[in-house]
Specification:
With 428 residues, the chain is an alpha/beta fold. It contains 12 helices and 16 strands. The chain folds into 2 domains: 141 residues, Glucose Oxidase, domain 1, CATH 3.50.30.30; 207 residues, Zn peptidases (Aminopeptidase). The structure holds zinc ion (ZN).
Length: 428
């Protein structure tokens, strides 16, 4: 039945941002070039086109390398705001960071490689990749402009000024010592600064589709969520749709199949079925759901995600979450052992940001993902239906049915997921 106030739809918006033409940054009459000497932070502009001029003594300065380890930039920005700063300059050796995700900053090596392999799909892919990264950046809200500035460029033009006045050479590197002088007041950059940040914001309307099977038991307030994203990449530059047969029509097909079977049989706990939108743009649909949950997150016992389940090994599926939720892995393993599907634990590194399960994991909910993983048609217009093994899809649907049916009919509570870092291969 419909889960959202009598409707199946949960609407939301996917934010897109690009760098506008009117960015300006001048210190004592010397102009800095955007994308060469400095760049505004992507995350730092909730309201379009704020500007700040003539902010003498009110510009806080921090070094990126010192700011990021303790609490990260969000904490630093908040501290700057609270100290009364009108803007924040962040000094770094280069202009790349998780917080400055502009397409103009994609390294040329990567750009060339993508251009070569993707040809006419390149522009679309680039936009998607950049938006994806932007939306996955830890959220920061700030009212003040924040600029990442190349340290060598600023010291070239303003010898010794910054380090002395920003107090960042202090041995004590606490936040306050970056930003406040001995008398506790903001000790900002005292030259004449003029700046304008111009970020163009746009958005796409999107919606999650949510169905609900009310439980019949005493614990029907507890829910298990089954998810699969139904969005894909849209059209390429010639207007040809990306079919997305494996990614993720396969998962959606299994979702519907499992829903039908569970509905016929009924369950003790409740089961929620979510077809997520906006996954390809940075898990935006699942992030929206966990930010605006329809069912309380503390009553959400388990989240099972399926994202691309019909390619590669015919009798095996990659299981993401074995290191985060070993109990769930054990239960899934018991069930899989009785079937002819083998669970593979070899790509746990892809758990982070891999798909919509991650948004639930971030909220402390046991969450797993089943996926056939990378193949040569991944995110290309050649991801077509005839390459998908329907047999594999139905085996995975059966597996998910068994797992959810078991949990929904029991009083199993899983531990909160473990916080582990699994490095990408070759990045140890
Ligand atoms: Zn996918």
């Amino acid at each position: 039945m419909p889960a959202v106030d009598g409707s199946y739809f949960q609407p939301f918006e996917i934010p897109l941002k690009s760098l506008g033409k009117d960015n300006r940054f001048v210190i004592s009459g010397k102009e800095f070039k955007v994308l060469e000497d400095y760049v505004p932070l992507t995350v730092c502009n909730p309201d379009r086109g704020f500007s700040s001029e003539d902010v003498i003594g009110k510009v806080a300065v921090v070094r990126y390398d010192e700011a990021v380890p303790d609490g990260g930039l969000p904490a630093e920005i908040k501290a700057a705001e609270e100290a009364g700063a009108k803007a924040l300059l962040i000094l770094k050796q280069d202009l790349y960071s998780d917080y400055t995700v502009w397409k103009e900053l994609i390294p040329s090596k990567l750009r060339t490689r993508w251009e070569k392999t993707l040809k006419e799909d390149f522009a679309h892919f680039l936009q998607m990749k950049v938006t994806q990264k932007m939306n996955l950046t830890p959220p920061v809200t700030s009212k003040i402009p924040c600029l990442l500035v190349r340290e060598d460029r600023i010291t070239e033009k303003h010898e010794n000024v910054i380090p002395a006045q920003a107090g960042i050479q202090n041995a004590d590197r606490s936040l306050d010592s970056h930003l406040r002088g001995n008398d506790g007041h903001l000790e900002g950059f005292s030259s004449e600064i003029s700046m304008k940040v111009d970020i163009v914001e746009d958005k796409i309307s999107a919606r999650n589709i949510i169905g609900y099977l009310p439980g019949k038991g005493e614990h029907k307030d507890e829910v298990i969520i089954i998810g699969a994203h139904y969005d894909h990449l849209g059209l390429d530059s010639k207007g040809v749709p990306f079919p997305g047969a494996d990614d993720n029509a396969s998962g959606v097909a299994a979702l519907l199949e499992v829903a039908e079977r569970l509905a016929k049989k009924g369950t003790e706990r409740s089961v929620v079925f979510i077809a997520f939108d906006g996954e390809e743009w940075g898990l935006t649909g699942s992030k929206y759901y966990t930010g605006h949950p329809v069912f309380p997150l503390n009553k959400t016992v388990l989240m099972v995600n399926m994202d691309a389940i019909g390619r590669n090994e015919p009798d095996a599926i990659h299981f993401l979450g074995s290191q985060r939720s070993p109990e769930v892995r054990r239960l899934a393993g018991e069930i899989a052992n009785k079937s002819d599907i083998k669970l593979l634990d070899d790509i746990e590194f892809a758990f982070k940001y891999g798909s919509d399960h991650y948004s639930f994991y971030e909220k402390g909910i046991p969450a797993i993902d089943l996926t056939s993983s990378y193949h040569e048609d991944f995110h290309r217009i050649t991801d077509t239906w005839e390459k998908v093994s329907m047999e594999k899809v139905s085996k995975i649907a059966e597996l998910v049915y068994q797992i959810v049916n078991r949990v929904a009919g029991s009083q199993i509570y899983f531990e909160k997921p473990l916080s582990v870092e699994v490095p990408f291969p070759g990045k140890q």
